[in-house]
Amino acid sequence: AEKFGIKQALKDLGLSEINHGSSTGTNWFSNGEVIESYSPVDGALVGKVKATTKEDYEKVVSTAEAGFKEWRKWPAPQRGEVVRQFNEELRRLKEPLGKLVSYEMGKSYQEGLGEVQEMIDICDFAVGLSRQLHGLTMHSERPGHRMYEQYHPMGIVGIISAFNFPVAVWAWNTALAWVCGDACIWKGSEKTPVTSVACQNIAAKVFEKNKVPAGISCLITGDYKVGEMMTQDERVPLISATGSTRMGKKVAQTVAGRLGKSLLELGGNNAIIVTPDANIKNTVIGAVFGAVGTCGQRCTSTRRLIVHEDIYDKVKDAVVNAYKQIKIGNPLDENNHVGPLIDKDAVKNYQNALDKVVEEGGNILVEGGVLDGDGYESGCYVKPAIAEAKNDYEIVQHETFAPVLYLLKYSGDVEDALKLQNGVRQGLSSAIMTNNLREAERFLSVEGSDCGIANVNIGTSGAEIGGAFGGEKDTGGGRESGSDAWKVYMRRQTNTINYTTELPLAQGIKFDL
Ligand code: NAD
């Protein structure tokens, strides 16, 4: 790792030997057990972070509550100005932060930089948004009355995030929540705690310089038990949780039990439909990048390729050939396409999936396997695999967070392909490759894809921050990032003002005294 300047990156990001969660503008720290974070790249220790105790958590929430009472009074464009300065720091620290993301999580350095770029983009978006937190005005049914709506800050937003996007998901939430006037408490993944501290350090510096009240950016650290402190806490009106469907179902129940709001961004089982009218070259690029990028650990990774029988063999051969070109190795080395899985448990899940698909009758087209020897000492490097399968296999119905691509064949027309594509519990991302206008429109129509994201002639993986991001069914129904996703971070109030000397009642009701 030293060859790639990790030590310098940690220094540039202000990390120390043992790091703590904290709240901006305060100098108290988390006091729980030490979490050690090991890199899947080379198995070495990335850093140590102390976990948040119940007492620490109480301090965090009371600081955030007090901070919110001040912060909500700042004009939104002034809050936007703080986010603008935070963004400048992100631009300045893009390389060390991208490098740390790559080293602690295992995605390629290019993808690490891409993730920081997403943070930068959402901050730009949020700064503009800080002058556009608009409500509507409505015509009242009563004479001499005016009616309009306004959006007020919500309060404390609890953010729970997954290991695979250790920095972008936090920014998608915080950049918007901050301009909306909320305080944020973030519990990052216990698998990438050092990256979380690096982000908090960047925010803290900018916030302190701008005299933002303490508690507007808070970091708590630890596993699901620390997450549960927030999901159970009535003082946290909104929980934004990104991770597995299993986690989302628990979080949703706990938060609903206290009538809180939750924004859920959960697992996907994304497919590309390839019709006889598809451009095969682009299909192969989209499918292979979608399946092996981030070692198959994106929520939008391509897991199923649904190919028409007329072009099935052609697509199959082209994809299998493309897999021969894939270079697996240290993700900090830009010559490699695919880095490691996050840890050895993920490797086990990957191996189990390959065993299971064979057990269920699948046919392996590209063999998987765990790599060992020089450069692969961490035990987390695996070969991307392809299996011919059926949509109703149990393993195909399931999201395996690894580079395993299932090839499915359809005959008939695009409706038959749509039945397969929609025939899973998850509903995040979907795509169709076709130059046939009817097929494309059918795919996007009310009878088409049931996913939150539906693309034509691009793959399933990756999304721009300008659109609302999220999915349906087991993906949880939440939307974050662009479009009007900001509304979830605010509470809407409808105001009716009577400027007459009378008091007419709604619906023409007479109430004479
Ligand atoms: P995970 O569910 O194991 O953990 C996610 C986070 O939830 C972690 O911070 C964890 O500590 C916390 N957590 C787990 N159980 C909890 C509970 N009961 N209460 C409170 N917090 C709890 O997921 P992971 O392995 O880190 O990430 C992979 C998963 O995330 C995949 O399913 C992937 O599709 C999904 N994901 C979805 C999106 C999206 O936007 N839809 C984005 C990234 C990842």
Walk me through what this model shows.
The active site is at 265. It holds the Pfam family Aldedh. By secondary structure, the chain is an alpha/beta fold. The chain contains 14 helices and 22 strands. The strands form 6 sheets. A 7-stranded mixed beta sheet has the order 13-14-15-12-11-17-18, with helices on both faces. The longest helix has 21 residues, at 109-129. Bound molecules: nicotinamide-adenine-dinucleotide. Nicotinamide-adenine-dinucleotide binds next to helix 8 and helix 9.
Q: Return Rg in Å.
A: 24 Å
Number-wise, the strands total 22
Give every kind of bound small molecule, once each: nicotinamide-adenine-dinucleotide
Largest sheet: spatial strand order: 13-14-15-12-11-17-18
Major beta-sheet overview: 7 strands, mixed
- Main structural class: alpha/beta
InterPro entries: Ald_DH/histidinol_DH (IPR016161), Ald_DH_C (IPR016163), Ald_DH_CS_GLU (IPR029510), Ald_DH_N (IPR016162), Aldehyde_DH_dom (IPR015590), ALDH7A1-like (IPR044638)
Pfam families: Aldedh
Domain Aldehyde dehydrogenase: 31-494
Protein name: aldehyde dehydrogenase (NAD(+))
